[in-house]
Inverse folding.
């Protein structure tokens, strides 16, 4: 019996889809069987980030309306040997094409075959959000260290806490720019975490490589040397129950060179 | 048919007191009241006499009160000051209790959430920006108040808002409103503060200690220590 985790944020553009793609990849790298569901019906893009767009035959709406079997709509990620699948959203209709009850039933069915089901939630708190949250056992709230994103995350956490049968949500702070935090131009991770007062499960630095990799349709988590990739892999390990200490991005970046610079006093 | 007097009229230095029997039928009572009032002769005085009505253990509805007042007002020199009864309905009692009591809630009020109580509110936790707390009476926050607080929201100017860390986006008391400065320095706020409406009818924020003198009725503790 698998676990269903919804990845949500309230505000758009904070990195829900990127986080879903990378956590799915990182969990599959840990030999877990993972299914990603894109619930952003009408504005799907998880398939693009995963580089699986050209293999879509059926979609989520086809499945819930019975036009195909569930396994027919699942798109296999060829980079893994039978571990990572994607259930894409429909592009031609809208959020009202699916109901929360249908989502619940679908996720129950998928839980039989998969260890983890990651649900990519659309922005907002309307129908699409309700669909995405309906079948989930756990929730991960993604936010960036900006006031607007934190405000929306706060709202969503309030809604998630009211959901029945849902474990307390966990927090991922995404796209941190350590130099701006140091200058005091951006909220730091501790401020965000204490404001939202839920368990922090990951800190991801803002990295050009993340944008580049979604441009190329290959999640950054495949790259073993990138700081954002390591952050995503660490979140995956924490989901699996390992205790991995949280690292601030500037600690992650620390190389022998910066250590030396700090030692001779030209860098903080 | 009548067994004894249903209406007793007493004169005091503040005017007349009408004691109404609470055992007899209501229409009988009204009849006798009209009769009795008609026998009271106006001694040619033009001065108005105030009347207090005591209905004892009889519950008097708003409609019945109007009837009573009309009967008495017909005598031109009589004015009804008050109608007193020993009984209130369960609904009224519940409302009274709700308005008086302090409701406590432990937790965080997040953006978009609204916590409303009819009486006084004690919040053990923070109010995040975008969150709202409302109370018919006063509000006490044992945490950081960063959202909106509305005390005395049904029109009570005596209500106050107290918070351990007062950094609200907006404060409202009754129909008064104040907004925050555009920027807070969190380190600067070290002291508990309270908000109230002052003599000049303005909503102001001051040290918590002034409440003791401005709103002594906040203390419900009786006796000494």
């Amino acid at each position: 019996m698998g676990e269903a985790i919804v990845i949500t944020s309230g505000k758009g553009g904070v990195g829900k889809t990127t986080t879903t793609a990378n956590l799915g990849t990182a969990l599959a790298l840990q030999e877990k069987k993972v299914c990603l569901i894109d619930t952003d019906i009408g504005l799907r893009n998880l398939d693009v980030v995963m580089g699986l767009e050209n293999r879509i035959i059926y979609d989520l709406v086809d499945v819930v309306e019975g036009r195909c079997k569930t396994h027919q709509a699942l798109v296999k990620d060829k980079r893994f040997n039978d571990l990572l699948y994607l259930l894409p959203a429909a592009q031609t209709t809208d959020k009202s094409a699916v109901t929360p009850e249908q989502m619940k039933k679908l996720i129950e069915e998928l839980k039989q075959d998969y260890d983890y089901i990651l649900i990519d939630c659309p922005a907002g708190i309307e129908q699409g959000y309700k669909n995405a949250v309906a079948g989930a056992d756990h929730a991960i709230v993604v936010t960036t260290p900006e006031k607007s994103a934190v405000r929306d995350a706060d709202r969503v956490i309030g809604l998630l806490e009211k959901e029945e049968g849902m474990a307390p949500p966990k927090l991922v702070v995404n796209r941190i720019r350590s130099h701006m935090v140091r200058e005091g131009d951006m909220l730091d991770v501790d401020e965000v975490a204490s404001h939202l007062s839920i368990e922090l499960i990951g800190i991801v630095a803002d990295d050009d490589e993340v944008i580049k990799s979604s441009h190329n349709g290959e999640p950054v988590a495949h790259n073993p040397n990138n700081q954002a990739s390591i952050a995503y892999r660490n979140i995956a390990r924490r989901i699996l129950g390992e205790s991995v200490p949280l690292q601030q991005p500037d600690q992650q970046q620390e190389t022998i060179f910066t250590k030396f610079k700090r030692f001779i006093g030209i860098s903080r | 048919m009548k067994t004894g007097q249903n209406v007793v009229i007493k004169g005091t230095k503040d005017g007349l007191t009408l004691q109404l029997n609470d055992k007899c039928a209501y229409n009988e009572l009204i009849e006798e009241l009209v009769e009795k009032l008609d026998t009271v002769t106006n001694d040619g005085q033009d001065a108005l006499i105030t009347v207090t009505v005591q209905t004892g253990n009889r519950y008097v509805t708003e409609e019945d009160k109007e009837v009573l007042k009309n009967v008495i007002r017909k005598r031109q020199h009589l004015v009804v000051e008050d109608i007193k009864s020993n009984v209130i309905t369960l609904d009224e009692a519940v409302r009274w209790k709700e308005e008086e009591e302090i409701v406590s809630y432990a937790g965080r009020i997040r953006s978009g959430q609204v916590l409303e109580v009819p009486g006084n509110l004690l919040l053990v936790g923070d109010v995040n920006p975008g969150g709202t707390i409302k109370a018919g009476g006063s509000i006490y926050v044992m945490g950081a108040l960063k959202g909106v607080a509305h005390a005395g929201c049904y029109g009570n100017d005596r209500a106050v808002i107290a918070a351990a860390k007062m950094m609200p986006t907006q404060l409202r008391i009754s129909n008064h409103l104040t907004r925050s400065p555009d920027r807070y320095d969190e380190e600067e706020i070290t002291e508990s503060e309270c908000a109230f409406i002052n003599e000049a009818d303005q909503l102001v924020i001051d040290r918590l200690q002034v409440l003791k003198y401005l709103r002594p009725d906040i203390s419900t503790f009786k006796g000494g220590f």
Observations:
- Chain B has two domains: 7-84, 93-217.
- The longest helix of chain B spans residues 26-39.
- Chain B is about 20% helix and 35% strand.
- The helical segments of chain B are 26-39, 62-73, 90-100, 211-214.
